Amino acid sequence: MARQSISFTQPNDEWLKNQVDKKEYSTKSELVNDLIRQARKQQKQIDWIRVQLEKAENSGFTTLNKEQILAESKSIF
User: Tens-of-pLDDT digits for all 77 residues of the chain?
Assistant: First the structure.
């Protein structure tokens, strides 16, 4: 695992410490890694939606209604 040294603003550092103090996470590193995983998952979802929108724009139409599109996006992620 790569070791990094990073700095946080005071409010962010306090929030991180608070999460560890509440036993939500055992270390700030664990919490930061979890936040990064969540951001990566969210980016994957955003990228998928972007591709779907581009396909729809290029095709000119879709046979799916908004509820179906939402259900499909939720089933993938």
Answer: 888 899 999 999 999 999 999 999 999 999 999 999 999 999 999 999 989 888 887 887 778 888 888 888 888 77
What DSSP character marks residue 45? H
Q: How far apart are CA 12 and CA 10, in angstroms?
A: 5
Full residue range of the structural domain in which residue 70 is found? 10-76
Greatest C-alpha distance within the chain: 53
Residue 65 in tokens: 């209604």
Q: Residue 38: inside a domain, yes or no?
A: yes
